[in-house]
Amino acid sequence: MTTTTQLTQSQQQDLFGRRVAAHLAAGTTEISHDISERLRAARVQALARRKQIQFVTASSVVTSGGAAALGFGDGRQSLWNRIASALPLIALAAGLILIHTIENDRRASEVAEVDTALLTDDLPPDAYADSGFVQFLKSRD
User: pTM of the entire structure?
Assistant: First the structure.
């Protein structure tokens, strides 16, 4: 047997509603017809509102590749939603541009170091292009 502490909130609300309805039904014998009709109309409206609140459904299902997302509302996005959905793309593009710039600077520094070493060396740059010089360097090791 379940106690009220073990019931969910929805079950507790239903139980409370049934108890109130039983108390109200016990006193309906002394109420006039027009008042009982107004009470019946109010009960019907309350039940209709409860059903609308209880069954909120997604208005659309958006699929993209293997993923799906539920969309609520009328399908229109506010300005802030559009900005928020574009921010990850902007951050990705900014990151790629930053990485590209850093890599270009690093390559330029490496080329500058090699050029500096070639120009400040005792040998002329043409010596490095000579195939005999390459053989000479290999034979020294």
Answer: 0.37
